[in-house]
Amino acid sequence: xxxxxxxxxxxxxxxxxxxxxxxxxxxxxxxxxxxxxxxxxxxxxxxxxxxxxxxxxxxxxxxxxxxxxxxxxxxxxxxxxxxxxxxxxxxxxxxxxxxxxxxxxxxxxxxxxxxxxxxxxxxxxxxxxxxxxxxxxxxxxxxxxxxxxxxxxxxxxxxxxxxxxxxxxxxxxxxx
Length: 176
Description:
4 helices; mainly beta
């Protein structure tokens, strides 16, 4: 595989002429790290339906979430020659909030105790972002206000080679 630093065949940029791609993370999927779905699989509702019905379960979908992904932070080292800085990768974190503290304690404990996950983040416009080898940590958040909602705060962290998550159109029949 060629290094991303030597790739000279940069594709054309495609300008979005109208509309928007709405953000906000409204659903997520957690996938066992030993599963390797293709983007074609992830686009198909029938794929998700069969995986969600399989035993043992290796795919979980959590809808009705809120969250954000502010983009990655480059990993840098001192450069060579006249290039002062060399970017060698990126570290990323998405933060998701989910309701259901009382009924999901065992599930979240199991998530925390699993070393790596493959994750899908789904935005309000139905764009799926597929991430491999992520670390997921969930904790309970209880605000001071008695009018606030107790919830899970999920931190999803991963590193990559500056390539960004794979994106695809998520099936609305599955992710709402």
